[in-house]
Amino acid sequence: MATFTGLNLHNMAxxxxxxxxxxxxxxxxxxxxxxxxxMRTAIKAVEAAIAAKDHAAAVEAYNVAxxxxxxxxxxxxVHKNFAARNKSxxxxxxxxxQD
Length: 99
Prior knowledge:
Blueprint: E1 3-4, E2 7-8, H1 16-51, H2 55-74, H3 80-98
Antiparallel strand pairs: 1-2
Helix pairs in contact: 1-2, 1-3, 2-3
């Protein structure tokens, strides 16, 4: 009975190639979770800097968030319009801080 991070392959698939797919799908899922989590954390950092009215920190955090959003789009984790909407919304709030 083979197990991989809590997956019991003995009770799931009978076909060898499907057992391999289960393992690779789990690896990809964990990698996607990591990218999605870092993206959300970066967005929250920008929002925190905006709430604190710290323009310099907001701009710095915004640059990191842009990179994380673009990476998530390139990996197919989020839709390009989701990233564009978030970038636009954050930049709008940062520009309001500057006034």
